[in-house]
Amino acid sequence: MAPANRTLEDVPFLRNLAATFNVKNIPLAIFLLILVCIACVTAAIIIILCIRSCLRRVYKTKPKRKPLKTAYLEDILDPVIEPGMCGLLTYALEYELTNKCFRVVVVEAKNLSSPNETKLHDAYASVRLLIRSGPKWIPHGPRYKTDVQRNTSVPRWHYSCNYTITETELKNSMLIIEVFDYDSLGQDRSVGRVEVTIGEIDMGEYLGATFEKTVALKPGSPKYRGIGEICVGLAYLTNPGCMEIFIYEIRRLDIGHAIAPGKDVISVQVELKHKKRTLGTFETKSRIDTINPYFNEKTMFNIKPKLLDEASVVCSLKKRSTLGRRTILAQAIIGPQSPLNTGTKQWDEMRSHSPRTHVMWHVLVPHGVKLDEINVN
Question: Residue ranges of the C2 domain (predicted)?
Answer without folding.
Answer: 85-211, 226-351
